[in-house]
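Board notes, transcribed. Complex of a protein with coenzyme A.
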Amino acid sequence: MSHSVAFVYHGATGARTVQNSIHRHTEQCRCIRLRTRKGSLTGRTHNCEVDLTLRELTTADAETLARWQTDALFCAHAGWKRRESQQQSVEWWRNQISHPDPHLIRLLALDTQRPVGYVDLHGSSRVERELGYLVGPSASWGHGLGTAAARAGVAFGFEGLGLTRIWAEAIEANAASVKVLRRLGMREIGFGHEEDFLGQTSRYVQFEIMAADWRQSVNLAAR
Ligand SMILES: CC(C)(COP(=O)(O)OP(=O)(O)OC[C@H]1O[C@@H](n2cnc3c(N)ncnc32)[C@H](O)[C@@H]1OP(=O)(O)O)[C@@H](O)C(=O)NCCC(=O)NCCS
């Protein structure tokens, strides 16, 4: 099926109440129409849409995430700590995936079968969560994947989890990340704390989007 995002989510992650809500909503919302402006790396041309699938992380994904962790540029932007060895990274990720934080839903974003990014939705509330997103490795940046992954994460939060509000923050100096959130139609709501980003002190810009506004924008885009 083209131009769709399938949420394939087998809820081994998260608290029981969260699992239940994931199952209930996921059944109703297997596919959601999403659009992005650019082609992916798999040969689609400029101005085509990127189709991403989100699915729950499995321990087999530890290798992929650990590989991204060897990418110095990626780690510097994402704030990921580089491990001493690839094996240490793999073990760290396996442990994270098999002993998940009950308030953190972590999803892998796939372009066809190829892992291209990661999305998470964090928080203990039933109605709102914080969105996180990244594209790995850094060689894949700038092709619309970050926008597609973040958009899929928002869609999953609203249509899969039944949230009413999603918020996110990006360091102001991380221009690509701020651009992704603005492009999603998120509303700027203020500033968070300051942090070092690539040697520069910068503040977090905070954004939010409400489910009703999201649905309206999806409906308009589908016309
Ligand atoms: C932020 C991130 C997800 C963006 O991924 P991506 O695949 O490059 O995103 P997109 O291609 O959809 O869009 C990025 C936009 O930022 C622009 N951009 C990239 N670097 C930029 C810079 N230094 N200054 C200004 N714009 C920049 C790109 O040109 C693109 O805009 P365009 O489509 O108008 O040309 C990716 O850089 C990443 O994973 N960074 C590390 C993790 C992170 O910062 N996550 C977000 C915080 S939760």
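The beta strands are 4-8, 31-33, 52-56, 104-111, 114-122, 128-135, 165-171, 187-197, 200-210. The first strand starts at residue 4 and ends at 8.
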